Amino acid sequence: MKRNYLLAAICLCGKLYAQTTDSINNRLEQVEIKAYFNKQPLLRLTSSAAVLSQQRIQSQQSPALVAVMNTVPGLRMEERSPGSYRLALRGSMLRSPFGVRNVKIYLDDFPLTDAGGNTYLNLIDPYAIDQINILKGPDGSIYGANSGGVISLYSKGFNTLTKPEVNLQLTGGSYGLFQQQLNAVLPINQTQQLAINQSWTRSDGYRQHSSLNKKTIQLNYNWQYAKHSELKFTGFYTDLGYQTPGGLTTAQLESDRRQSRPKGGPNPSAAEQKAAIYDKTFFGGVSNQTSINSKLTLFANVFGSSNQIKNPFITNYEKRDEKNLGTRLYLSYVDRFSKNLTYELQFGLEAQKGWYDIDNYDNNQGQAGNPQAKDKLENSQQSFFARTQLAWLERLQVELSIGLNENKIAYQQRYPIAQEDKAHINFGNTWMPRAAVSYMATPTLAVRASISKGFSAPTIAEVRSSDNMINKDLRPETGTNHEFGVRWHLWNRRVILDAAAYTYQMDDAIIRQVRESGAEYFQNAGKIDQKGIEASILAYLLTPTSAGLIRSLQVGSNFSLNNYSFKNYQVGDKDYSGNKLTAVPKTVWVNTLNILFPYQLRLDLLSNLTAAIPLDDANTVYAKRYHLLQGKISWSKSVGHGHKVTIFAGADNLLNQKYSLGNDINAFGGRYFNPAPLRNYYGGMNFNF
């Protein structure tokens, strides 16, 4: 009997190895990423990068991008409570207590990162995203100020269709989760297409005082008004409201992990103060790309946004009126020196201007009371860039680029003392060069190396943080990144290996601190030493087939080793030099399994093992390591002519881990923890018309 099992196993392995179909080879060869002004094969790219397809985005729970983003080595996304997200790319959450900073994010080639340096990623509905491209490491030479990398989101609706297509998805789950999402792509004629993405999401939340209510509508329009010219529009409106339950101490966590922050000393509880964030935002942009001739292309866009934000907090009630306006344009020239040697040249600029009115009042249980402080700030930043690329026989690519970044802030106090004139903070002009090379040693093996400078100026939210004071002493983060990587396609291109090693030496890192009242402030921290190794493997063990119990089988494994430490950091009489960098786990190991069975039955599993995380600069408090297991099963069936229905069900935290996803850093009073839900479930249906 054992011999029969062994023979069957050998036959199965032989079958898996033998099925090297042309379809999977073609799919691998077509993996492209839009980076550095054009699409190019990911295999030959000079940067460490990742591409998240629509299928991967939808492989887990749909209300948030957290699970799929964390499959990318070097990227960490956290959820403090429904609607409250943080993101760090090759870095720490030290600067991102409630949002996204020092990472540049684009939506359909429009900067979603505003002039003040903040990115409200929670305004986007994940269902509206078709693809996510991620460039890791500082890339300020072309994309403006950043020290972690660049993330580009591309919406559904820009892939040309010949007939209308409508998708409606309904999801329900634990803790009062309900989500409705609609995507409609409507071809107007052969040259014009309109897409509508609409969603409504609500949740009661796992913890007390953590409900979410989010409504979005997004329009995408593209018009090819000439043979080599195209006009695009992206615009959305989001009405977002979510309660903020606040951090808990260890004792409070063990007593009742679902409670919101209770009353402490003179400070009332989060529920009593109705702590929450309400954000109503309009965002829109128009872009035009014209090929003047076969070699010369002109790209230009204009974009703007308006944010109306209300934030009742424990100690005050903040109102923010934020407006942003900007443009990005460049000229691209592509030609040949010879039959085997081509080159590219690009010149351009990206500029933004932001106007911010920030008013703070007493918080009388969710109602604005007497004024505390009122300030008006303006932020302007410009990035001028130039790039050249040489390509020889599609084997060797050499890139040289440089950017000049200017960043200034003007501010004027309106209360309690009205200033007659504006004061200014000038972060100076900073050159950001990058040099990179990629060489195809074989048709399936590419090695790459790069050196680049990172630069990230203090954001408006750091210069004027929740302590209601203007911090004129903050300096920009700067640093130099050295990197080496390799990509390798094996087993007839059915196994993809990608690995990189880097070292980033950062000066003047910006770090969050908390005052006794709970208000935050920021300061620079000398030097930080960031060394890391990232590796990923994706294997198509069984290519798509129409027979057998398993119709396709794909496994993936992603690993990050983060050896980050304070190199020189002293606060008063406390010296933290040599300590581990706050909020960074030493290792993260993520594994995925995707299986397709007969009758379009699909299973997606995700495992995330994250090491312990230091929560304070002194390394005296750690969040425990955890193993998060998530799963989703779906079944699809064609109904009628060209229609399809999909039923799905999933579970999060299958191992019932007690963990905190989105810890408060350097929290006063030991309130570090924002506990995540225990085992929970969801399910729903998707209708395609």
Provide the descriptors you would attach to this structure in a database record:
single chain; 689 residues; mainly beta; 22-stranded antiparallel barrel; 7 helices; 57% strand; disordered N terminus
Number of strands: 37
- Report the uncertain regions: 1-29
Structural class: mainly beta
Which fold name corresponds to the CATH topology? Maltoporin, Chain A
Mean pLDDT: 91
Strand content: over 45%
CATH class: Mainly Beta
Q: Please tell me how large the radius of gyration is.
A: 25 Å
Count every helix, treating DSSP H or I runs of 4 or more residues as helices: 7
Report the sheet with the most strands, covering strand number, pairing sense and barrel closure.
Answer: 22 strands, antiparallel, barrel
The rough form would be described as: globular
Distance between the termini: 51 Å
> What's the CATH architecture?
Beta Barrel
The CATH homologous superfamily: TonB-dependent receptor, beta-barrel domain
Helix fraction, binned, reads under 10%
Total count of domains: 1
Main location: membrane
Keywords: Cell outer membrane, Membrane, Receptor, TonB box, Transmembrane, Transmembrane beta strand, Transport
Subcellular location: Cell outer membrane
Domain TonB-dependent receptor-like beta-barrel: 175-654
